[in-house]
Amino acid sequence: MTATITSIAHYLPPDVYTNEYFEKYLDTSNEWIVTRTGISERRFAKSGGTSDLIVPAAEECIAKRGISKDEIDCVIVATVTPDHFFPSTAALVQHKLGLKNAWGFDLSAACSGFIFAISTASGLVKSGVAKKVLLCGADKMSSILNFEDRNQAILFGDGAGVCLIEASNDDNYGMLDQVLHIDGMGTPFLHMVAGGSAKPSTIETVQNKEHYIVQDGKNVFKYAVVGMADVSLEIMKRNNLKSEDVNWLVPHQANLRIISATAERMGIDPAQVMINIHKYGNTTAATIPICISEWLQDGKIKKGDNLVLSSFGAGFTWGSVYLKWNMND
Ligand code: COA
Question: Which end of the chain is least crowded, N or C, by CB within 10 Å?
Fold first, then answer.
């Protein structure tokens, strides 16, 4: 048995922040941001938590599939910006949507959250533990961004992508393989210092801005370029996929230069790479499902297309998924 995506939708908050917004108060420029990252604008939510980004996308996703909410038996939320430490954002989503028959949990893998979560959801479906998993990749990055730090403020955005994972009606389609990695040596390069059990929040930690992202961008970039390309090549090799067999590379959207380097090493034509970083920045766990949802909406993904999903993020975490597209007829 294989598991597959049977419906997908996304939500972005309406408020657009262009690079000019940052030019007004930071020592930065639209030209620098576009050249070094590929980002022109992003969306920030003015209120609410990550669950509030998920709900509209989830409602649309379920409606598109035409099923009753009672049929959903599991909800997974991949995020690093949960509404609260506890309960899980999955619990809030379950309650807000009224999913009476679901259990669920949050999954923390930063920018690789969606890749890790779709692999987990696929395993739950294949093992018979769940039949219809509502899989949410969402982050409200504006809640942990230091807006005074030009090295990070310009990189991220808020958004959500939600899909349903069910058994494929044809075993030749769906999630055919995954390669996943984690290595905690990456922690110092991208993390949040305070607010966790190792260093609970105090007045001092807040004054020191330790509840925001800390990032050594240069080192993250270096590891990401190698990690994302290596894992993408590994999944191609394992599945005898040549460059021309890959219809769509769906890369995590962190930096256009990381995406281009990955595509180049894979030998993928730039026209076959999903890119929307210019519009949304890095929405962490949401980038990959938002891409798939947008491309599907535009009629660009066809049944039988080979999709390679790839990500790299804090941890470090990185991974690739090979998905042969069908939505169940
Ligand atoms: N505007 C203008 N200058 C900026 C800037 C900004 N928004 N952000 C950084 N700079 C400056 C730096 O301060 C540095 O100046 P200095 O030499 O005087 O110290 C200079 O630009 C070069 O910095 P560097 O880090 O070499 O730039 P870069 O080309 O590596 O780009 C990032 C910086 C953050 C865009 C890049 O490293 C990156 O994208 N890293 C990966 C981040 C990421 O993907 N994180 C999410 C997890 S996947």
Answer: C
Strand duo 74-78 + 133-140: pairing: parallel
pLDDT digit string, tens, across residues 55-64: 999 999 999 9
Q: What does the alpha-carbon distance between residue 269 and residue 94 come to, in Å, rounded to a whole number?
A: 40
Query: Using one digit for the tens of pLDDT, what is the confidence trace for 131-188?
Result: 999 999 999 999 999 999 999 999 999 999 999 999 999 999 999 999 999 999 999 9
- In 3D, which of 263, 258, 253 has the Cα closest to residue 232? 263
DSSP class of residue 243? G
Domains and CATH numbers, the chain: 3-167 (3.40.47.10), 174-324 (3.40.47.10)
Is this model's pTM higher than 0.70 or not?
Answer: yes
18: which strand partners? 41
